[in-house]
Amino acid sequence: MGAKQWQSLEAALGWVGCACANALASLQTVEHGFPNQPSALAFDPELRIMAIGTRSGAVKIYGAPGVEFTGLHRDAATVTQMHFLPGQGRLLTLLDDSSLHLWEVVHHNGCAHLEEALHHQPPSRPGFDGASGLPSLARITVVLLVAAGDLAALGTEGGSVFFLDVPTLTLLEGQTLGPDEVLRSVPDDYRCGKALGPVESLQGHLRDPTKILIGYSRGLLVIWNRAARCADRIFLGNQQLESVCWERSGRTLVSSHSDGSYAVWATDAGDSPTTQPTVATTPYGPFPCKAISKILWRNCASGEHFIVFSGGMPRASYGDRHCVSVLQAETLVTLDFTSRVIDFFTVHSTRPEDDFDEPQALAVLLEEELVVLDLQTPGWPAVPAPYLAPLHSSAITCSAHVANVPAKLWARIVSAGEQQNPQPASGASSWPITGGRNLAQEPTQRGLLLTGHEDGTVRFWDASGVALRPLYKLSTAGLFQTDCEHADSLAQAAEDDWPPFRKVGCFDPYSDDPRLGVQKVALCKYTAQMVVAGTAGQVLVLELSDEPSDQAVGVASVDLLQDREGFTWKGHERLSPRTGPLPWPAGFQPRALVQCLPPAAVTAVTLHAEWGLVAFGTSHGFGLFDYLRRSPVLARCTLHPNDSLAMEGPLSRVKSLKKSLRQSFRRIRKSRVSGKKRLTAGSKEANAQLAEQASPHDVEVTPVQRRIEPRSADDSLSGVVRCLYFADTFLRDAAHHGPTMWAGTNSGSVFAYALEVPAAAANSDRRPERAVEAVLGKEVQLMHRAPVVAVAVLDGRGRPLPEPYEASRDLAQAPDMQGGHAVLIASEEQFKVFTLPKVSAKTKFKLTAHEGCRVRKVALATFASVACEDYAETCLACLTNLGDVHVFSVPGLRPQVHYACIRKEDISGIASCVFTRHGQGFYLISPSEFERFSLSARNITEPLCSLDISWPRDAMRARPRESPKLSQANGTPGVVLGPQSRGGSPDPTRSEGADTPEPPEATLSPTSVDSATSADTTLDTTGDVTVEDVKDFLG
Q1: What is the pTM (predicted TM-score) of this model?
Q2: Which of 143, 390, 866, 998 is the one with CA 20 to 30 A from 792?
Q3: DSSP state for residue 760 in the 8-state scheme
């Protein structure tokens, strides 16, 4: 491609053109999943929005699906409390360092985002702060917003209550309520020299904002009148206090205590002080119980009030359970969760004119999930969450993305998911958090995110928009004999059991059998067929069915060792499949099971539904299976004679890791010694070359290349199959094209097989009598033996071949079969294009030699033009072990741009990354969260929403705006970047004009890979020990 053509391309493509400079200011776009390590919860009943704070200082606000706001405190401190200013779109947060922060939702150009408006760090030492003239605070234990949010009461560990002006976050002088002032109203016999302890609870009166209910740790409850500065009523409790709730009318209080009891106090009966509650009960007594950490009282017009509390379980029998109990009249349900309860709230009426709460829903925030119950439907069923689903309900082991899913297949998957989770016929179950408006346009295409899990399940997620919505769950455990049958019987408790436990939530971190873990998934979106491969060498071929069925599954075994002598498998045994017809619900149902021998984890898999073939690879070799005839076609062993580590299996991982580390360090020492010898011998030549490069007559200087040591042929795990690929191309000669299969290994070997596929299989579910044949056509060995990450064939126009059925059904442009084809082989160190069928080198780019990094993930992505609707270009996207994303042209392999995407220390995030076909990607920023990023300006998925707020703008004093968030919400540093030129300086094409100054944030750029520091640094192979040996091979 000529220079003029490239200039026109750069002006059109989204990731280079200056028209999209603003669109690419931030690489990360949205976070999917459940926040990692939540620590606080808040709900605004007027706006119907919910906030979650985390231990890393993140603040996330959720409303209706698609309405999300994210912020991050500058200090990575734990968010301990959050309080909405009702109806104002403002949020007050308290961190564990006792600092207070005021956040507000601000609208710009019709869209809203979250900004930190003010923060206040009170003095921490007791005494008097001479600078401010205000008394200092001890640690803040509780916060209460009063007077419509303009005033905040701060309870402290020392027993004092301070008052804060919220709009300015300044302490008010002369209004502090100390414990001594309260003790004056307490009888002498109650004082008896004991302190009141920390302030445990502050509650406001719904109808009288001048009254505050104060609860002290010792058990004392005081209704304090702020206007008269006196105690209206005093309740002399003697049990350590945990929580207090004021009933809506104000005539009743309920307090919970550390011994698992709660007490009901009448505020309008008898004289003050009150010594005895009207009701005192231990719901799970009489044996010692754990503390009831929080309690709520919600009244109803029917007279059957709700009491909701957390904890209180019998200490000896169920002290390790995480429970929330719901009591209404004589009905008690003990909600049993699998993770710790953080906080909970009820969705109920808060209008002052209403006499009753009439709770509609109960939302419980747990450490690993959010559960919402419908309190208006009999049985109190759980409400399916449209977002915040726990991605890690079982640990994620792999992921894949399917773009442009046909509408018919989408509807069938949604239908199968609805049959798994039938909704109540009443229709009352609806998501109660509905605040804000989603302004994003309806997605033009549907995207599926598939996640494989440790328990053998594959979950289907709607990844078309901001909210990652669960669609369907496929379970493969039913095909095998495991030890999970007894768990089902234990879950069905008898009706007369006490406490009346009810299992709620879907987070289940325990796997019945680690061999069930899913390692690879592949889906054909045109035939609704998919392949699921697991840890014990099992490869399942499944097909979507709209009706339940009873059928047996055919099992075939493929021996990848090919009777090679001297190898003994020392790992786990294969899974035992069930025999006979098995019941399968509607959804994906297995059609064939292929068992690899030895039963090692499957490392690569690919499916070609048009030919009826599935290819799979392990650490021992690869195989080809004809699932229409239920017969193996090919098995090839890739083991080196010295590769004994591949036979160890995951059970001897520690032993293998030590061996691998030892061998790696030996190679490092060997390479350094040999490098010193070569350096002495070649110093004269090197100096001469440097002098020649420094001469002024040179026009173009060749970039410095790092010396890469060739890998030994007997490296451990050299036989691991890293990638498999099907293509219709020219392999035998330039005149005839046909089906081929390509396999790349860890030792830099690429095997290309020519396939004979009977033509009748294209439009039939049955294979003719003639079997598929495979003949080895080519074998390529890369010079440095770097692991092969991906293989792709390019047609005569340099474009990737379409997926199966795309060309035959006119769903994509037919490939050019007239010009010469080429094959792109991506290894960990370089990209190389070979011509076909001769397999002669055409173009290459040495990424490791130039950039000092190694390839971890690659994908061919289509970048649509911003300026022209119909123009698009296919490029190669690459993620390195340093967390950088590089984009290269295809087939010229010309470097375009690169971004700093993931922290290089985040090995699991780099290993979990998956690219989409349209320039986006996903990677795990925590076990429960995917970060979504975009390389294309035309294809960006980010929250676009607004919020109806009602507070005067002039109420806030003028202040500088906060800079855009430079970190992700989980605390992982993010990057606010634009494209970077190859010289390491910001790309001049990004500037829209000389008069437009760029903000300081936009001038940030990743460290130049061509800087003097990086150019003079030799590649330290000790990093490979952790990344390659530990993560890629053993992970």
Answers
A1: 0.84
A2: 866
A3: G
